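Note on ligand handling. Small-molecule inputs were canonicalized before submission; formal charges were left as drawn, and no protonation-state enumeration was performed. Where a ligand contained multiple stereocentres, the stereochemistry in the source SMILES was retained. For magnesium ion, this procedure yielded the string shown in the input block below.
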Amino acid sequence: MLGRVLVVDDEKLTRETLALALGDEQFEVVTATNGFEAIARMEETPADVVVTDLRMPSMDGLTFQGIVRERWPEVAVVFMTAYGSVSSAVSAMRAGAADYLTKPLNADELVIRVRRLVERRRDREEIARLRAASSAAARTPGPVFRSAAMVAVFEQAAAVAPTDATVLIEGETGCGKDVLARHIHQSSERAAGPYVAVNCAELNPNLIESELFGHEAGAFTGAARARQGRFEAAAGGTLLIDEVDDLPREIQVRLLRFLHDRSFERVGSSKTQRGDVRVICATKQSLDALVRAGQFRADLYYRIHTIHLTLPPLRGRREDILPLAEHFLQRFSAQRKAATPEMTPEALECLWAHDWPGNVRELEHAIEHAVMFARGGRIEPAHLPQHVRGAAAPPLVELHLEGVERVDMNALLQDTERRLFDWALSRTAGNQARAADRLALSRTTLRSRIAALRGAAAVDDVASETAD
Ligand SMILES: Nc1ncnc2c1ncn2[C@@H]1O[C@H](COP(=O)(O)OP(=O)(O)OP(=O)(O)O)[C@@H](O)[C@H]1O
Ligand SMILES: [Mg+2]
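Structure output:
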């Protein structure tokens, strides 16, 4: 349907002729015999364009137009006037009518003019939508950074944002991969479209394909209804594939194909769809190493790593700590409807000295904690979480190397690794995903390291057997 048109005329023939001509051109047409009835129709569902006779009994066209203008200011009104009453058409135009036509009517001409008005209205709506989107983007404060390293990353991001190129973002946990991906989306021409993020590590490996590409009803047990996947949900916008290193190999092939020709099928469907989606991938660990270990497809890697943005960890860009701390201070105190508190130099010192293994997210939590405990007063070191305060928790591992001549480093590292795996797996009842999380590893890395340890143990056994 192109648009909805309301035709108002007391003559049945005019109403029917116009309804037919407009209907043939895919307009939805409603008719009314007088102004009162027309207003009732508008109250039910406003039309995009109203075409009305100027001279009608009960309520004349100009009065009717005045009401429409007041109540539905965005609706265009077109007058039909009898040939010769051009002066009343002129006063109608002065009163804000969008157009006028003289009777006897040329229906084709009317259709053309109505179509133009509907298109103009759609354009205006589109512009309003884009403005609203960009002012919403302006209200949410952008990423905060001051370090030269981050300035460089954001300059690269600004250069690639307007293109549809696939981007790979690499960075430790909590250092702002999501923030950067969203920033790229918002600075792109897709800003008014959706931004969809999907985390591969959080998805059930059996359902990952359907999550991404959707499925048809009955595609597998439990798929009672058809469902769209994230690629469909992100149409016209950007899709962040987070923890792409955790994508199973069979799905890697499908992602590669999508990046190659933008096509995919829902699970259980043979109908190929095209997706207008810009893809951003994020990873905590270097994919390069995974490719060498055979866990990540080289062809996919080459496809996604051409534009590669690396977010440095917070400890590698300490100049960002204070601006970020200030930003979070403002945010959390505003949330509590309180004035932004000051930080004592000692508290700032603690922030500066801490290593931030959890990066910006850890800093964010530390400030939230401090704002809560300072209860509106200045922020002292005592208000920061203990580990940030630096009441130094003892190091997990201490080496006693005095008097030692030689160390078998591999054996030592393997032994430590083995103990860490035992510790993590015993605390998560053998759940590898959660154990990996406790060790700040991806599930894939955890699995491959355990396998490597088993391999090493087997080799050791063989070695000791042959030595015997
Ligand atoms: N430059 C920044 N400016 C403002 N806030 C930031 C910035 N970088 C990160 N943050 C905030 O820090 C938190 C963590 O950031 P984000 O979620 O983007 O990290 P991530 O790298 O995607 O983490 P993960 O690897 O765990 O997914 C978020 O709350 C985010 O708003
Ligand atoms: Mg993230």
